[in-house]
Specification:
161 residues, alpha+beta, Nuclear Transport Factor 2, Chain: A, 7-stranded mixed beta sheet, globular
Amino acid sequence: MITAAVLALALQTTPSGAVDPGSPEHQAVLAPVNAVFAALAARSADGLDAHFDPAAQLTVVHERAGAASRVSHLTWQQFAGGLQPGPERLEEVMIAPTVAVDGDVAMVWGPYVFRIDGRLSHCGVDHFSLVRQAGVWKITGLTWNQRTTGCEALDAAARAQ
């Protein structure tokens, strides 16, 4: 039986295959992730196909205080289709993401905050799954949760980085 203390310690350890944040491999894995954030900021899907595997799937868990979570699934093409021009300025900031690599498989995991016109909208954790194809990292899956509670400390951390 695993005690709560052992479980908490296990969750705080660095995952196997974690890559040094200063390494070229870390930056290469983050390139498609950063392209997604740039597309959000530009409200444009132009060029996202270069960063997603054609069969990539996205899952979002909408967490609502006092209500059951709702899970939505979409293709990356559906996600890209939702990036329409608009007057609001969108910004997603991932806070100190962990990048882990084993051969041609990688993942990026980290808390994020999402702002609209500079104001905190929501927060959560992003999890990107990637595969290196012909020497290029492609996103094969993206899962995130989205909540509006408990975001202030994350926003402060994002502004401090």
